[in-house]
Specification:
Layout (H helix, E strand, L loop, with lengths): L2 H9 L16 H15 L3 E6 L2 E5 L3 H5 L3 H6 L8 H11 L3 H4 L3 E7 L5 E13 L2 E10 L1 H23 L3 E6 L6 E4 L1 H7 L11 H4 L5 H12 L5 E9 L5 E12 L6 E10 L1 H59 L6 H24 L2 H6 L1 H15 L3 E7 L7 H22 L3 E7 L4 E8 L14 H12 L3 E6 L5 E8 L4 H7 L6 E4 L2
Helix pairs in contact: 11-12, 14-15, 15-16
Length: 517
């Protein structure tokens, strides 16, 4: 038996003995040793006494951690249980001075009897046993903790990589109303013209256009108080050199998984300056186009008045003169030429054509009777021109629209009825006008043959015209149709005085064509 084995025998108490060999009760010291070993064996740890490269004592916890029974470990070298990557550090640790060993902790890898690698934490304390130095170690299995730590590190590394390389602005901020930046990525810094790390410590107020500070502050107040889990706004930022940057900001409150306490904020910022500039340019172009339409409408009205007050009156006067000629001829006992009757018919046709042109240019009835009565007249005329029953339902009392918008509404209905007459083969049609809030809603339905919205025929350019007229006034138009399913047109147009606000309210309305199966 080796000296180490002999020492181990000296300190390993008999397990579970309750009497001595001579039948007498154990001494108090023996009782204490038995109780101590039983307590040690109950704890989910491995208690070891080392001297050099040998185990002098091993508790029962060794089996759960290494797969070795205590007696097996007493027979083998310490290094056989240590993973090669940890042997050097363990050897160095066990050979240090007592002062260096006391209270020290070491993370190491163990090799189990089956060859599995397990992580362990070893706390050590120097001791003297049989007048010779030894080391008492308590070893705890930390494999799961180490795996979780490793997984957390990998997750943090992946997040760090995503955070740094993202093409959109990202920032981590304090859980406070000031929202001071803890860390910002390169995209955020570049968007605002700052160098690496220059944004750290800056509050949102320092980076926000003065006119948008209160909007941001109120949202942050609701976020910090827990009334909102996140918020999303569009606001203006100030570039380092003073330029205005438009951004779409989303801020999320990150909370503790267990307590729910707020920890920090996570901000996502998208640079929408180009988008805003393009929108402003489009709005300017649409404003110009509306002005051109207004000018065109004015010119149409002037031309219609010129035709009505000039050409039509002259033709009517000439027709009256022709109508008086037969009586003149008869009074002189002369034969009435047939050409007079033909000329009268030609002038009557010219008068009708002139009135038709006036209606095309600008229906005078809109000014004389109002939009709704003009629409009723249009429907009556369309109904007389082809055998389709048309029901008209106007659920509005009065319409106070600009002359330009009145003209566009009339044209939309005129074009939709033309489409029904030319293409639908319908037997019935319904026209409804309502005014929910600050919108004018026009619905036109027919029971005709319908059409495939994905393959709109070239001769149906009126569909595009209706959509464009609605869009120019901040609204939208949708078509629902399908072969032999009829067609439904819905147009929504804002009628508020402030067109820009109306366009914001109508953002959800999109021009669309839906298929009915």
């Amino acid at each position: 038996m080796t000296d180490q084995k002999h020492d181990a025998d000296n300190i390993q108490p008999p397990l579970g003995d309750e009497t001595m060999a001579d039948g007498t009760s154990p001494k108090p010291e023996s009782v204490s040793e038995i109780l101590l070993e039983q307590v040690i064996d109950l704890i989910p740890m491995m208690v070891v006494v080392y001297r050099g490269n040998r185990h002098l004592y091993v508790s029962q916890g060794s089996f759960d951690i290494t797969g070795y029974e205590p007696a097996e470990l007493l027979e083998i070298d310490v290094s056989e249980v240590i993973h090669p990557a940890s042997r050097g550090s363990v050897q160095q640790h066990l050979t240090q001075s007592p002062d260096a060993v006391d209270g020290a902790r070491l993370i190491l890898r163990l090799l189990t009897k089956s060859g599995e690698v397990r992580w362990a934490s070893m706390a050590t304390k120097s001791m003297v046993l049989q007048d010779q130095p030894a080391i008492l170690a308590v070893i705890t299995d930390v494999t799961e903790k180490q795996r979780m730590t490793s997984a957390l590190r990998e997750s943090e590394a992946r997040f760090k990589s995503f955070f740094d390389q993202a093409l959109i602005g990202l920032a981590i901020g304090e859980n406070s109303l000031e929202g001071r930046i803890i860390e910002a990525n390169h995209a955020y810094e570049t968007m605002l013209g700052y160098g690496r790390g220059e944004l750290v410590g800056k509050s949102f107020v320092e980076l926000t256009h003065p006119e948008d500070v209160e909007l941001d502050r109120e949202q942050r107040r609701l976020l910090v108080s827990g009334e909102l889990p996140y918020f999303r706004i569009e606001k203006r930022y100030l570039h380092k050199h003073g330029d205005v940057i438009h951004g779409r900001l989303t801020v999320i409150m990150i909370r503790d998984d267990v307590t729910g306490a707020p920890i920090y904020t996570f901000a996502i910022v998208q640079d929408i300056t180009d988008e805003k500039n393009a929108t402003q340019k489009l709005l300017a172009e649409e404003k110009l186009l509306r002005q051109l339409l207004q000018l065109q409408d004015k010119e149409r009205r002037l031309l219609a008045c010129d035709i009505h007050d000039g050409l039509i009156q002259d033709i009517t006067g000439a027709m009256y003169m022709l109508q008086s000629l037969p009586a003149e001829f008869e009074s002189r006992k002369l034969e009435v030429p047939e050409t007079i009757d033909l000329a009268e018919k030609a002038l009557r046709n010219a008068t009708q054509e002139g009135r038709r042109l006036i209606d095309e240019l600008r229906p005078l009835m809109i000014e004389e009777l109002g939009l709704l009565n003009a629409i009723r007249s249009l429907i009556d005329k369309e109904h007389a021109g082809f055998p389709v029953g048309i029901d008209f339902d106007a659920r509005v009392n009065t319409l106070d629209l600009s002359p330009n918008l009145e003209g566009q509404v009339y044209r939309i209905l005129q074009e939709s009825l033309n489409n029904i007459r030319r293409h639908s083969q319908a037997r019935r049609a319904d026209v409804r006008i309502t005014q929910p809030g600050k919108f004018l809603v026009i619905e036109v339905r027919d029971d005709g043959i319908g059409f495939d919205p994905e393959n709109v025929p070239a001769d149906r350019s009126g569909v595009a015209g209706i959509k464009e007229r609605a869009r120019l006034f901040g609204g939208g138009a949708s078509f629902e149709s399908g072969p032999n399913q009829g067609t439904r047109l819905t147009v929504q147009i804002p009628i508020t005085a402030d067109l820009q606000q109306a366009i914001e309210d109508v953002k959800g309305i999109t021009d669309e064509i839906r298929i009915i199966h």
